[in-house]
Design brief:
alpha/beta; Carboxylate--amine ligase
Length: about 120
Amino acid sequence: MTNKNPDKGYVAILGWSLNAIDAVDRFDRRYVVVSPPWAEDYCKQNNIPFVPWDFDRLNERSHELAHRLEEMGVDVAIPIFEETVEWAGAINAVLLKNPRLLGQAMLFRDKSLMKRRARLAIVR
């Protein structure tokens, strides 16, 4: 990991993708990967900032994660899979102090799920 500009935004990547981590590492800004605990060893070995988190289901713990990231100084959460869009919406609603973001994230996720189902139906 190279030195990052502390004056630029601090982002949290929600989910696990080596390509996404590599891409965000090339930017001149701080980041942290929020991913399932099984990725922790890899992150430690490769000096990747990491917060372990299970994304099994959205519940009251999303608030806990949002406050944890807020205390770290994270500005925005970026989902890399549709399974983490709902989490990002809940976290960004807290980080950006805009409760409407959760509803917008849910609509975005539902729309992408409908499009995927339609494409799968066409393939079948």
